[in-house]
From TrEMBL:
This is Ribosomal RNA small subunit methyltransferase NEP1. It is found in: Nucleus, Nucleolus. SUPFAM superfamilies: alpha/beta knot. It comes from Linum tenue. The keyword Nucleus applies. The lineage of its organism: Eukaryota, Viridiplantae, Streptophyta, Embryophyta, Tracheophyta.
């Protein structure tokens, strides 16, 4: 896959050089339960390392069930731009004057949303119990990032943005020692990484199918891996073309972090994680 650093966004008298990775478009919705659509895709072919991070030791999965959960964080705002002679993740709070100068809407640049969502997932008992299989982040530009369950996510937004800026330039981040890659860019579509017999559930406030998440999860077969697709943008809706079901779990428009917290609590109850 070719990395094009020369792609630019026009704005005023200057140009913002934006790192843009051209990726294949998502494939149409497929049923992994019946078709066996679980083929593993390939990692991007550049073996450069952005930085090293300490990994987190993971316990084995619960022996009474092989089912687990994957989260897909859709439309994440992780836009890399050359700001002040350095590539940075654009952030509405930090770069608001800069964005307005370039005629770019500051409210679209919210990396804090995906940061909060990712920290919540990694802090959950689901991950601690070994039930989290992976997290995929799909940026608003279509870049796909895989986050391993043992990745340690920086607690502050500034450190997180620095990490993601290096990841988008170097394509992977390794664990210290011989722990392997904790975060890496992978090829689209995300569906090629979904396990066989998995069910992809999209969460959308506008869905006509409204029911409590505990009720929905209780009706899922114990052997099915669950994939939850949650939007991490300030406004808009997720790409629902590849989900098997689209549900609204609240009569209120919840934040991504709130949705994920409710999902984690429901799954921890279902799988008896205390």
């Amino acid at each position: 896959m070719k990395q094009n650093k020369g792609d630019e966004i026009e704005g005023g008298e200057e140009k913002i050089k934006v790192l843009c990775l051209k990726q294949a478009s998502d494939e149409p919705k497929l049923s992994r339960i019946s078709s066996g659509h679980g083929k593993q895709g390939s990692e991007l072919g550049v073996d450069q390392v952005a930085m090293y991070l300490p990994g987190i030791a993971l316990p084995p999965s619960s022996p009474d069930s092989k089912a687990g959960v994957i989260f897909v964080l859709e439309k994440a705002s992780l836009v890399l731009a050359n700001v002040g002679r350095r590539y940075r993740i654009l952030n509405a709070n930090e770069h608001s004057d800069y964005l307005r100068k370039k005629n770019m809407d500051p409210y679209k640049y919210r990396p804090d949303i995906v940061h909060e969502a990712l920290v919540g997932i990694m802090d959950s008992r689901l991950r601690m119990a070994g039930k989290l299989k992976a997290v995929y982040i799909k940026t608003d530009e279509g870049i796909l990032i895989k986050v391993e369950p043992n990745a340690r996510i920086p607690r502050t937004l500034e450190e997180f943005c620095d990490m993601m800026a290096q990841l988008l330039q170097k394509l992977s981040i390794k664990a210290k020692g011989k722990g392997g890659k904790l975060l890496r860019l992978v090829q689209n579509p995300v569906t090629q990484y979904f396990p066989v017999n998995s069910i992809a559930i999209g969460l959308s406030f506008v869905s006509q199918k409204a029911l409590p998440i505990e009720e929905y999860i209780s009706g899922v077969n114990e052997d099915n891996d669950l994939i939850f697709v949650v939007g991490t943008m300030a406004h808009g809706k997720i790409d629902s073309d590849y989900v098997d079901d689209l549900v609204a779990v609240s009569s209120y428009p919840l934040t991504a972090a709130a949705c994920l917290r409710d999902i984690a609590i429901a799954l921890e109850s279902k799988w008896r994680i205390h």
